[in-house]
Amino acid sequence: MAEKVAVITGGSGFLGSHLCDKLIENDIKVVCVDNLLTGSIKNIEHLFGNEKFSFIKHDVTNFIHVPGNVDFVLHFASPASPIDYLKLPIQTLKVGSLGTHKALGLAKDKGARFLLASTSEVYGDPEIHPQKEEYWGNVNPIGPRGVYDEAKRFAEAITMAYHRYHGVDTKIVRIFNTYGPRMRLNDGRALPAFVSQALNGEDITIFGDGSQTRSFCFVSDLVEGIYRLLLSEENEPINIGNPSELTIKEFAEEVIDLTNSESKLTFLELPIDDPKVRQPDITKAKEKLGWEPKIGRREGLKITIDYFKSVLNK
Length: 314
Ligand code: NAD
Prior knowledge:
UDP-galactose 4-epimerase, domain 1; single chain; about 325 residues; 7-stranded parallel sheet; alpha/beta; 2 domains; binds nicotinamide-adenine-dinucleotide; globular
């Protein structure tokens, strides 16, 4: 049988690099296309020299050329943490719109399956809880976070248009907060911020009163769900995330406990349009993909804390 080939845009980022590993483990050749805007060669350097892996430094908002056959295109390129997309608003809008268009064009040209990395942020500050795929969301298009949320909503729309009008076999995964090794300590998300503050014995800064909720999924669980979706016949969006929900204050206390830290909590003003609650309804992923998360938060956090310790010690 001919070797399968996948193109992963954003493949040197946090999630993209774990996906590169997953596909290569499953004997799929990977072409990673990334302009290193927010990603790092460090995330993929262990793959250089592997004959199943190649890297093209390229901005995917421009025409993407990959020689030879391609079976899968996975579009993961996009600034993803609030610090990044608030600093890079135009690039975020461009990679969600022009970048998705170019990645879809590649899939259409090659007759490849296409998978879009969408986000729970398409639900905005949700009025229903937990969030089901059928919910259309509550997004402020002109607020600072709109650059990310609306780029992803456009990306979903153009993906469905390519599916309906060009017959491309497309998949959409709505990813909920994911954590694990290769996250950046300073990416502005609560989890790496809390862990680094706890490890450094600094005060843990909570935005608002800490009553807002989040649900964190360990990266290996997410990647397994995405892999199953890629091989499935499903074309409608699917939530992948861990439904175990807790308040940000409870989460900060858990991090203090797991790191044996003396850190105290301090409270800052809540950013504009920060979602008050976030929890995936994963009924559809269970039914269609036979998927559910396996790694509990304490177990996943221990692995991630060890990773952050190793980074801090370097
Ligand atoms: P990341 O910043 O680590 O990775 C994104 C990658 O995209 C980086 O390597 C960056 O260099 C690359 N990139 C950005 N613009 C590009 C461009 N124009 N051309 C080529 N490459 C470009 O972020 P991540 O956390 O790994 O997120 C990956 C994807 O998953 C994103 O699309 C994000 O929206 C989505 N997502 C992530 C989460 C999460 O919890 N991490 C949650 C929801 C959705």
